[in-house]
Amino acid sequence: MTVRHFLTLNDLTSDEALKIINRAAELKALHKARTVHEPLKNRVLGMIFEKSSTRTRVSFEAGMTQLGGSAIFLSPRDTQLGRGEPIEDSARVLSQMVDAVMIRTFEHHKIQTFADYSTVPVINALTDDYHPCQLLADVQAYTEARGSIQGKTVTWVGDGNNMCNSYINAAKLFDFQLNIACPEGYEPMSELLESAGDRVHIIRSVEEATAGAHLVTTDVWASMGQEEEAKARMAAFRDYQVSPKLMDIADKDAVFLHCLPAHRGEEVSEDMLDDPRSVVFEQAGNRLHAQKALLEFLIR
Ligand code: CP
Ligand code: NVA
Known about the structure:
The protein is α/β, with parallel strands linked by helices. It has helices at residues 14-32, 55-66, 87-94, 108-117, 132-146, 162-174, 190-196, 206-210, 230-236, 244-247, 280-298, and strands spanning 44-49, 70-74, 100-104, 122-124, 153-157, 177-181, 200-202, 215-218, 255-258. The protein has two domains: 5-131 and 285-299, Aspartate/ornithine carbamoyltransferase (Rossmann fold), CATH 3.40.50.1370; 134-281, 3-Layer(aba) Sandwich (Rossmann fold), CATH 3.40.50. Helix 4 (108-117) links the parallel strand 3 and strand 4 (122-124). The chain binds phosphoric acid mono(formamide)ester and norvaline. It is an enzyme of class 2 (transferase).
């Protein structure tokens, strides 16, 4: 049987992605009812983190435990990966010992190489280019709040980063329109924009991009690994803040999402996360349920 990886949303068909979102809602209900559901008993997830994490680490580790399995946290500080053991060798060794591997790293090609040599599913838990697990939780959050995202208009405000790239993939997979409001020089990956065609538009004016939108979302101005650019980015993104005032020009039923962590006073106003239109904490909580659905789907 060919092993399935989840390196980007393009690794799923639309049908599979929708099934995972529906399953996430079922798993959430089971979790709330404290029903024991352990289809992954004795299965193990290896978790390689080369960048910091709160939500991703805890949701994967708690998720594996709740599904009857367990997870091992691996940091470059105390594994041979950090001392230069080749990714190819690490993949061949680890995939004989665990049932899936989750990786958070910098360059996307590293996770691709790992997957090429792995005999078990590899899950992208964030690279410089993509954050597909987050998108499962985002679509679950929108669906819970307002129903299907199909045919809706989503506005991305700010940096054309890993989250923005994943929103472009999500627009194709879940069939929605995407307006991207970003300053010049901070666009998402051009090949993704080309592949999305008419579904995705770059609109420089935040107001124009947000008018009538059903979902408004943003992310930090400087991602992990861009700390040295932070000052220049502060200046470039000054006009790209989401606030309740901006939300007022979106659709009357619009919701606000943010993958978190957020920087209040930068990409969001001080009061945005607490606005009634914000569902960011439900969104964060859904990381647990969406990833449990993904683990059930991938680990055979
Ligand atoms: N949104 C997200 O991936 O959060 P963490 O960096 O805390 O995992
Ligand atoms: N774009 C952010 C997302 C963090 C969850 C980063 O890469 O740091």
